[in-house]
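Human: I hope this is not a bother. Would you mind checking the protein record under this note? Thank you for your patience.
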Amino acid sequence: MKSAVLNHEFVEFIPKVLEDGILYVSMTYATAAHNCCCGCGNKVITPLTPTDWKLIYDGESISITPSIGNWSFPCQSHYWIKHGKIKWSGQWSSGEIAAGRTRDRLAKKKQFKSVETAIVDEVIVAPEPLLPVKPPKGFWRRMWDKLTFSNEAD
């Protein structure tokens, strides 16, 4: 069954079993997940990073950009999530898919160009991790904490 709408649910951890029609968002782990909107049952994971997807929350609904192209699934569905609604997009050819994947690889290479390993006395030393072992609270969680704290003072 094709989904026309995705309701959102903010969670710390993405559940193992996803309900159809729900976009799960973990700000803690900068990840969103949902079942493919075409109804095929595949789990779609969208990492929220500068080189992957961007999530926009307007206080009521969620949008994700760029589009979701499930090129590795048999369905190869392609859609946008705009204000919680699914906007179906055209099918891509194998050439378009290959070009998109190349563009994504180049964007990642450019983004992480400054993160290189250094060779010291023939021992490879990796740079310090970019993220702490325990990720900090996400932006929306910090905002929620501030709002909750300010309301308690009233």
User: Anything to note?
Assistant: The radius of gyration is 19 Å. The mean pLDDT is 84.
